[in-house]
Automatic annotation (TrEMBL):
Record-annotated TonB-dependent receptor-like beta-barrel domain positions: 330-773
Main location class: membrane
Topology versus the membrane: Multi-pass membrane protein
Stretches assigned to the TonB-dependent receptor plug domain: 113-219
Organism lineage string: Bacteria, Pseudomonadati, Bacteroidota, Flavobacteriia, Flavobacteriales
Lineage top rank: taxon: Bacteria
Identification of the protein by name: TonB-dependent receptor
Subcellular location field: Cell outer membrane
Statement: the UniProt record of this protein carries the keyword Membrane: yes
GO molecular function ontology, one term from the record: siderophore uptake transmembrane transporter activity
Protein family (similarity comment): Belongs to the TonB-dependent receptor family.
Amino acid sequence: MKRLYMLWLLLAIVGTSYGQTITITDAQNNEPVELVTLSANSKLYVTTNAKGKADISAFKNVEKIEIRSLGYKTVVKSYSELEAEGFSLSLEISNLNLDEVVISGSRWRQSSDDVPSKIISISAKDVALQNPQTAADLLSISGKVFVQKSQQGGGSPMIRGFATSRLLYSVDGVRMNTAIFRSGNLQNVINLDPFAIEGTEVLFGPGSVIYGSDAIGGVMSFQTLTPRFSLTDSPLVTGKANVRYSSANNEKTGHFDVNLGFKNWAFVTSITSWDYDHLRQGSHGPKDYIKDYYVQRQDSTDVVIAQDDKLLQIPSAYSQINMMQKIRFQPNDRWDFQYGFHFSETSPYGRYDRHMRVRNGTARYAEWDYGPQIWMMNNLSVNHSANNSVFDQLSLRLAHQWFEESRIDRSFNSNERNSQSEEVGAYSANLDFIKGTGEKNTLFYGVEYVLNDVTSNGEITDISTEVSVMGPARYPKSTWQSMAVYVTDEFKVADNFTLSAGARYNYVLLDSEFDTAFYPFPFTEAKLKNGALTGSIGGVYRPDDSWVISTNLGSAFRAPNVDDVGKVFDSEPGSVVVPNPDLKPEYAYNADLGIAKVFDDIIKVDVTGYYTSLKDALVRRDFKLNGQDSILYQGELSQVQAIQNAAVAHVYGVQAGVEVKLPKGFGFSTDVNFQKGEEELDNGETSTSRHASPFFGVSRLNYKANKLRMELNVNYQGKYDFDELPEGEKEKTEIYALDENGDPYAPAWYTLNFKALYKLTDTFDVSGGIENLTDQRYRPYSSGISGAGRNFILSITAHF
């Protein structure tokens, strides 16, 4: 009997020590707060689950536990204080925080107090209120990222005057950029599912020390849903189901995700389906944006059909499906294994800006479509905590991604359909370490290997006979490899001053084999070997809790990829881009200074100024192929061009924000962005950089009270006159409005929008609103399709 009692006592002690659970709630409505981060030094952190609970057993005897969540005041408590309070804590709402937990700065969780780069976060709560249709729209709700669109099924972010392959995408810590990410507008971000993203961060400025090639203008880091464990003997079952309708494109969306958690195992399953009809633009605006016809094939002839509704943008309809499955296993508090499977596929969709082109007084194209855009990723991450001389924590990420995309075009009343398809197998391995060396110093270091295998095919089909023959491919068969090592040191000079410095060495190999059957290239292969050394140094100084001053100096690079070296395509009517195997990396050098100040816990002002210089910029310039400056391409004599290291570019600007806490649950905020980019031309003159957008911003009046959130906001963009447009944009008369001289320009515009979310019960939320209340016809700078006209949104979400 005594032995049984001792065994019971031992089990009780073990059970007690197995886990100590804290519960964190919202002080205003007493609801649980998910994704609260509790951290201590660089070694300990946990996050709360959907029920606001977290196991903090590992924090026992810790004197300083920092408790942070976006939108709440930061709390610092000791373990003994939390124990005295019954391991229950309420967080007070605050939109004026100067610190938060960020990951994108180093791949590890850090306080923004210690990161000199400017980083913003977009929370899942903001996404639920704003109801973005795609991940590109999700980025734009920040008011700090400009998004260009050439068709409804797309979205190409612009950050600090850079875009496309000069920005880097990271999904669950894995590089998404591939060797065919192009200098033209990119649509890959729409492969991500906003419903399955629990947090988004945007790092502004160079990020090459951590992320390597392409991270010149910034890094967009997406963290998808993380499987959560049960903290009791009962399984943890949480999730949500959502249905949404939008009127401007007859959107019909459905989403479902579920988390099943046990003590050591957890699973997340997510699936989303979207269906969009043709997008209707607004009633009030430039008539030049209206294309009131579409092309239809009738009796072996292409016929121009007049639209009944002139405001519909035909063709722009498409659909998409996303699926995700994650499995997580944590055998003990030192090891954490996680596997993720992601799949996304769109339907074919029309590239609307190409359908606006005319030739000989009629439509130039009968077809110009993107084929299905497919993305798949398998990702295994292993995290291990230790206490040795080499590391405190290590993270191993092994990933395989598959990308598939295609282009289909056919000229008006031509029987010849041109198809080009690309497939990329992307393999990556990242091994990252973090090591605290004393109380004030932390090292982040790691190694990376990336391999891209590119296959490209072309096909020409006679649609009258359905006979297909091989056609010219867009890219050569290629492999692109990157090997790198990096180290960053973070040193707390004082409690209110942190200094960071880092360096990275990258070695990039590119091997391409050209097919000369269709074009007489004077070469059959390209072999590039380039090394790149980049670095950064910066500091964060907090004179007191209401001030933050940060500055950062950094360099970044972009190594030539397959798109730069080997692409063949028509950039605009009368021009054709051909391969150039003689390229080297471009380098960016950046300086920025940020100041943020909170006045009396009522007003927050945040201003960041920056300057970036791009050397040996990879740009499209006139070229000669076999001594000829023009060749016949798709039946048209075209000027030969190629990507070349032929320019110096400079971008400078200011990002500024103001937040005001008003009485009775009201608040006001505004974010504005001014940037100016200049690019050197062949003749020695300068032109506006193509991806330096006009002035843009958003102003918001919001209200929060218990179960209700409301927001009235205004999105706006400044004007680019004809002489302010980049030289390469001045010929694209089909996508711009025309001034009194018949020259293209980008008009200023605004949209007035109302959004609301109401929690009907503990289970059901209803959200929605009206976008573009005044039904403006507007087109974001450089876009080939107009934004939605007046748009009614209704969304219902069930939480369980």
